[in-house]
C-alpha cells in the first residue's frame, strides 16, 4: 500500500481535491466591516427573524450551505457527506442544520479550527475515493457563544483588551473530485499544545503556540520556506496572538511577518468592542469563503496556507481552573 504521508504530520494529495464553490453569510457587525461587500448575505439583525440566537446560527449555517450548493450547480442528492461544526454544546447549530438535508452528516468540534479541519477531512474522503462531493461548513454567533462561554450579553460585561469578538458568521465550501477552482494540495494535522494560559478572555495567547507548531511542522514536512506561500492566514489569533505566534516562529528561524494575515483582524474595523480582533468558528470560515476563495479562483494568489486555530476549552474546564489547550490545522491551497 502506498502512503501519501510526508514528514511527521502532513498528508499530500497526488490528485488534488477541488474547492468548487464557497459561500459566506454574516451578521450586521461583520457586514459593516472591511470585507462587508464580499459576503453573499448580510443580515441587519442578529436574530435573523428567529426566536433565539441558537436558531439564528443554525439558519445562517444552512443558508451558507444552500448558497455554496447553488454556486456549484449541485443538487442535494449529489453530495456524499456534510462535515460541519460550531461552538455550541453538542454542536447543535450544525446538527439542526444537517437535519434539513438527506445527506450523511459528520459533526466535528475543533473550536475555531473547525473550518480547516472540515476542509482537510473532506479532502481525505475525496482523495481516498470515498466521495465525489463533500460540503465543509462551520459557524458561530456572538450572542450565543458569549452566553455559553462568558457572560450573557444583557450583563454588559466589559471585555479586557485581550478579549476577542465572536463573529456572527457562517461559511461553507463544496469540495469535489474534479472541476474548476482552487485545489487542496496538502493538509497538516496539528498537535494539541498548552502553554498554561487559563484566561478565557485571552484566546489569542492560548492559540498562538498551536499555530506556531503547526506552521513549523508544515514547513519542515514540505521542505518549504515562507516565500513558497503568497499568504499565511491564521484564524483567529487577533492582534495579540498574532504577535506572539510570529515571535515563536522567529525563534525557530521562520519569519512570516511580510505574508501573514489574521482573519480575526481582517474582519472588523478596530474598536474597543472588538478588542484584539474577531474569533469563532464562523470568523475564518466567512473570511475564506467570502474573500480568499475568490482571490484564489481569480489567481490573485498562487498558493496560500490556511491555518485555523482552536481553543479546546469549555465553561466547565474554565470554572475548574484548567488551562486552555489549543490546536491548529493547516491546509495548503493552490489556485486552479
C-alpha termini separation: 29 Å
Order of helix and strand elements from N to C terminus: EEEHEHEHEHEHEEEHEHEHEHEHE
CATH-defined fold name: Peroxisomal Thiolase, Chain A, domain 1
* Percent of sequence in beta strands: 15-25%
SSE class: alpha/beta
> What's the tally of helices?
10
Helix proportion range: 25-40%
Low-confidence stretches: none
Gross geometry: globular
Number of domains: 1
The CATH level-2 architecture is identified as 3-Layer(aba) Sandwich
Number of extended strands: 15
Ordered list of secondary-structure elements with their pairings:
Elements: E1 5-6, E2 10-12, E3 18-26, H1 28-31, E4 41-42, H2 53-72, E5 81-85, H3 92-98, E6 105-107, H4 114-127, E7 133-140, H5 142-149, E8 165-166, E9 169-176, E10 183-188, H6 203-222, E11 231-235, H7 238-251, E12 260-262, H8 263-266, E13 278-279, H9 281-297, E14 303-311, H10 315-319, E15 326-334
Parallel strand pairs: 3-4, 5-6, 5-7, 8-13, 11-12, 11-14
Antiparallel strand pairs: 1-2, 2-10, 3-9, 7-9, 10-15, 14-15
Helix pairs in contact: 2-3, 6-7
